[in-house]
Design goal:
The protein is α/β, with parallel strands linked by helices. Helix content is 29%, strand content 25%. α2 crosses α3. Bound molecules: ligand LLP.
Length: 412
């Protein structure tokens, strides 16, 4: 459920008309609904039957600091994958004891930055990373908290590029023998403390069976870890629940939590989740204006540099005209101005549209702006947050000057 609705044939975000936003702030622009973000965060937080839980919003899905602040106030912690994401979370006063650092390639600088800020845990993804973290913690004279991200070998379905829980995917540690060796090492280390086990099986997951399978494997492994004399604080089941882009009917957060709680009902550990898409996707749209009509093409002012998902994954985002009063409809291929044949926003969609109309590309709040680029030297669009009847610019549209601001001629 989200707060993008037609009122008198005009599309609104909460109490602000999207036409109005396009007129005032221009297009392409990402527009987010504060109420929707809060509602989605609450859907997770209220689903747990005990206090024993932590919901870490996955910053990579939508990382504007104004969005993070809303989710922090709602009660979320954060799942981060870089020093940049840590900077964002800390900049809005996030509690470091609710921050989890995942990712296969953490650099020395990133590890040091996170240790110094006393984050809850590093989800370590290899033996080499463990050695590196231990070395840095030793140099700093402290104990770093770590969890092991193991690979439960569950195929969660979905696009190959976003499935992560299988043997052969680059994420997590696949060999359970190796996991147990590392656990023994951590237990005996003066500079490491093992606080959890983690897994993340993929993204845009549409059924709960794979979560259940992963949870069962996690508790089995947790028992083995306990047998080595290590007491765990949490079991982190990652993110990955899907959203309806078109006609999909994914389970809701409550159903996910019910499955996890039923598998883990005898456990003392805190259940951690790292949702991204389910919180941010339907809370955002990409506003774009129709520049030209040509044959079956609607040529719009947003391209693959603004929203990469259709080109990269063949993702089908629904597209609505902000003016619902246009009668003549046909099937269109909505394409952008970028010089690539793969530059499309949506293929073969039945829609009414005229030159100058403003379209809203739905479900674009997750992996939308964050994956945008300056390809074709196109400035990134603005990000706008709607709160009731107010629209706030939370990231200014980039200018042509911004595009070359960091560049230098060799002789300067
Ligand atoms: N935790 C970890 C360790 C992750 O790798 C991810 C996403 C999440 C949590 C959040 O997953 P979510 O709840 O958002 O599915 N760019 C792709 C999605 C990549 C997901 C990467 N990892 C897309 O646009 O579909």
């Amino acid at each position: 459920m989200d707060y993008f609705q037609y009122k008198n044939n005009r599309l609104f975000c909460e109490d602000v008309s999207l036409d109005q936003i396009a007129e005032t702030h221009g297009t392409p622009s990402y527009v987010y609904s504060k109420k929707t973000l809060e509602r989605h965060a609450k859907a997770y937080l209220d689903s747990f039957s005990s206090e024993n839980n932590l919901v870490c919003f996955s910053v990579k899905s939508c990382s504007n600091i104004a969005i993070l602040e809303i989710l922090k106030k709602a009660g979320c912690g954060f799942d981060i994958v870089s020093g940049g994401e840590l900077k964002r979370a800390l900049s809005i006063g996030a509690d470091p004891s609710k921050i989890i650092f995942s990712g296969v390639g953490k650099s020395k600088g990133e590890i040091e930055y996170a240790i110094k800020n006393k984050i809850l845990s590093f989800n370590i993804e290899s033996g080499s990373e463990l050695t590196r973290i231990e070395g840095i913690a030793k140099k700093l004279g402290i104990k770093a908290s770590v969890s092991i991200r193991f690979n439960p070998e569950v195929d969660s379905g979905g696009h190959d590029y976003i499935t992560t829980g299988r043997k052969g995917d680059k994420f997590g540690i696949s060999s359970l023998n190796e996991v147990m060796q590392l656990v023994g090492h951590i237990r005996d280390s003066e500079n490491l403390m093992m606080v959890g086990l983690a897994c993340h099986i993929g993204s845009q997951i549409l059924n709960l069976d794979s979560y259940k399978a992963a949870a069962l494997k996690t508790i089995e492994l947790a028992d083995q870890v306990n047998n080595l004399g290590v007491k765990l604080e949490f079991l982190d089941m990652g993110g990955g629940l899907g959203v309806p882009y078109n006609n999909e009917v994914p389970p809701n957060p409550r159903e996910l939590v019910e499955v996890l709680e039923s598998v883990m009902k005898e456990r003392k550990e805190v259940i951690v989740l790292e949702p991204g898409r389910t919180i941010s996707a339907n809370a955002g749209v990409l506003l774009t204006s129709v520049e030209y009509l040509k044959d079956d093409f609607l040529i719009v002012d947003a391209g693959m540099n603004d929203l990469l998902r259709p080109s990269l994954y063949g993702a089908d985002h629904d597209v609505w005209n902000t003016n619902n009063n246009i009668k003549k409809s046909k099937n269109w291929n909505i394409v952008g101005p970028v010089c690539e044949s793969s530059d499309f926003i949506r293929k073969d969609i039945f829609l009414s549209a005229n030159e100058g109309d403003v379209l809203a590309v739905r479900t674009a709040g997750a992996y939308g702006f964050v994956m945008s680029s300056n390809y074709n030297s196109r400035p990134r669009g603005a990000e706008i947050l709607v709160d009731g009847d107010k629209a706030h610019v939370i990231r200014s549209r980039e200018t042509l000057e911004d595009l070359i601001a960091l560049e230098r001629l060799p002789n300067d």
